[in-house]
UniProtKB/TrEMBL annotation:
Gene3D superfamilies: 1.20.1260.10
Annotated InterPro entries: Ferritin-like (IPR012347), Ferritin-like_SF (IPR009078), tRNA-Hydrxlase_MiaE (IPR010386)
Pfam family, one: MiaE
CDD domains noted in UniProt: MiaE
Protein name as it appears in the record: tRNA-(Ms[2]io[6]A)-hydroxylase
Source organism of this protein record: Flavobacterium celericrescens
Entry-linked PANTHER family: TRNA 2-(METHYLSULFANYL)-N(6)-ISOPENTENYLADENOSINE(37) HYDROXYLASE (PTHR42637:SF1), TRNA-(MS[2]IO[6]A)-HYDROXYLASE (PTHR42637)
């Protein structure tokens, strides 16, 4: 689906379901960070009107998803916990290559695409494997909704790349790197953990 080279073991859904309050809190923070990331990207490239318009939509949609997750947390009598460290995202961040402004923006787009791809894949694993019917339906709808973000970020990378920057080749490098680091994850009740 997202060309990820190492799919999530479906048993991860059992770990997640073992502590739904934790997975929902972690998920809520992921949505908030995704919205913040879209806003940060707008700050980096305001002169690209069409991309800024699309990033604005993504930021709003991610905030809407945050609100939906927060409503589920409240409806179940829980409270949104504090932000969790996301070691997976930190590991990915280290893979970005330095370069000029345009190069760094393209790297940020690929970084965002990678996170979106894995998040959507995890939403699919949850929707296909958890017994909680409400959350199974929620994660299926969310996966469909958010899948467009992955492709948008990849398209932005292609649109912004300077001549000589091979986005397709670099994306393959991202996929290879992500397959190596994801082996250390999938053992905790967090979206990327």
């Amino acid at each position: 689906m997202f060309r990820l080279k190492l799919p999530t073991d479906p048993r991860w859904a059992n770990i997640a379901e073992g502590n739904l309050e934790e997975i929902l809190t972690d998920h809520a923070w992921c949505e908030l960070k995704a919205s913040s990331n879209a806003i940060m990207l707008i700050n980096l490239l305001p002169e690209f009107t069409e991309i800024t318009t699309e990033l604005t939509k993504i930021a709003k949609e991610e905030m809407d998803h945050f609100e939906q997750v927060h409503e589920i947390i409240k409806a179940r009598g829980w409270v949104l916990g504090r932000e969790r460290k996301d070691s997976y995202v930190n590991d990915l961040f280290k893979f970005m290559k330095p370069g000029n402004r345009k190069h760094l923006i393209v790297e940020r787009m690929l970084f965002a695409a990678m996170i979106e791809a894995r998040s959507c894949e995890r939403f699919k694993v949850l929707s296909d494997n958890i017994k909680d019917e409400e959350l199974a339906v929620f994660y299926k709808e969310l996966m469909i909704s958010e899948a467009g973000h992955y492709t948008s970020f990849l398209q932005f990378a292609h649109d912004l790349a300077e001549e000589g920057y091979d986005v397709k080749k670099r994306w393959e490098e991202w996929l290879d790197f992500e397959a190596k680091i994801i082996q250390s994850y999938g053992k905790t009740e967090t979206i990327h953990g």
